[in-house]
Amino acid sequence: MGVRFLLGAPQLKMGVIMRTETEILNDVYGPQYPAQVLPSAARTESVNSGVFPAGGAGLRVFINVTAAADTPSITAKIQGVSPVGTYYDLLTSAAITGTGLTVLTVYPGMAVVSNQSVSQPAPRRFRVVMTHSDGDSITYSVTYEMLP
Hints:
By secondary structure, this protein is mostly beta strands. It has one helix and 13 strands, in the order E-E-E-H-E-E-E-E-E-E-E-E-E-E. Strands 4-13-7-10-11 form a five-stranded mixed beta sheet, with no helix packed on it. Strands 5, 6, 8, 9 and 12 form a five-stranded antiparallel beta sheet that branches.
């Protein structure tokens, strides 16, 4: 019996454990492939994510809005965590008011685009702060990936 590595969904065949490509890459390189920061849910209040380790030169955060009631408005902020645990701002999105995907990128040497990207290396640890400007419901998830 041995471990086999196949692409696709995990399966069990004749006692052999098979794993997805993402599972294998996460074991080898850490969570460089999309990892969940906040699960999809309808929210009406601001929320801070937990702290996540960063293991690459850069970082990309995805905010996927799937439903919006009335006129909601949220902003996403990526914050680094200093060695002493203090939070500092890296990048803040423009107001997000409807459905769709917003991508924020932190990467050294890339072109700076206001509210979308910043030319800095990824911090060792970070969090995402989602700020709601009103009480209208908006459904979204937040994921991230590390960039080599």
